[in-house]
Amino acid sequence: MRRKLAAGNWKMNGTGGSLAEADALAAAWPQAACDILICPPATLLSRLSDRLSGSLIATGAQDCHTASSGAHTGDVSADMVADAGGSHVILGHSERRADHGETDALVRAKAEAALGAGLIAVVCVGETLEEREAGQTIDIVGGQLAGSLPDGATAANTVVAYEPVWAIGTGKVPTLEEIGAVHDDIRARLVARFGAEGDGIRVLYGGSVKPSNAAEIFGVSNVDGALVGGASLKADDFGGIIAALNA
Ligand code: PEP
Asked: Is the pTM of this model over 0.90?
């Protein structure tokens, strides 16, 4: 039985005042039947981790470098994420693939660094609208999965997030059948490559998840939770999604 996960990606949003939203979320969810994760911008990770220590909400980063230290101006290493109190790191988000030209090979190297630092890697995959319209979704997502996951991926150290690029921040969501088809295919590929561990790796859906559509999405087979952008910024909205996982 895979424990569900509600993961929030604050992206490049939030300053000190945003910590109050995390406080409110922690107060609203002193216990839960799912795991809860917030990945704030790097500037907030240490403060948020301190603030949430003792709560059941985990924290993580939105990226890390492949190296543990060195001459990489502006980057943050997996060891630094762990040192700041983070337990997870999102890798290969489509915005990083698009904005920073991140390839599957780079994402895989980052994931290896993350696992080496004891972090849980949340590895993102997903097709563009053009790729979906060309009927390439399964091939694209399967290729990203094969190229981005390290051989050492296990149920304990890796989470996959399926995020159709065209659904992120747009209010557009695939049909439940479309979500199910991709998640079932991802599950089959994980089992084929990792055996029993692959059956335990959680596969999140991401892309315009809100309190109003969360329950039906969570009812789809092989959907083990959500990676949430915009709706994770407010405790009430993220709480509504968490509630759907606890129903
Ligand atoms: C995301 O950035 O991972 C995401 C899913 O964003 P949103 O929920 O805003 O679509």
From this structure: yes
The residue whose CA has the least distance to atom 1 of ligand 1 is 229
CATH topology of domain 5-246: TIM Barrel (3.20.20)
Residue 171 region by backbone torsions, left for phi larger than 0, else alpha for psi between -120 and 50, else beta: left
Note the residue count of the chain.
247
C-alpha 157/C-alpha 238 separation (Å) is: 24
Atom of ligand 1 nearest to the CA of 210: 8
| Residues 6 or more apart in contact with residue 103 via CB below 8 angstroms | 97, 147
Give me the active site residues, please: 93, 163
**Domain range annotation of the chain:** 5-246
Question: 73, exposed or middle or buried, with CB in 10 Å at 0-12, 13-18, 19+?
Answer: exposed
* Average pLDDT score over residue span 112-127: 98
Check pocket membership of 124 for ligand 1, CB cut-off 6 A: no
10 CA distance to ligand 1 middle (Å):
9
Query: Is the per-residue pLDDT at 201 higher than 90?
Result: yes
- Per-residue confidence (pLDDT) for residue 1, from 0 to 100: 85
Residue 158 near residue 164 (C-beta atoms within 8 A): no
Per-residue pLDDT at 182 exceeds 90: yes
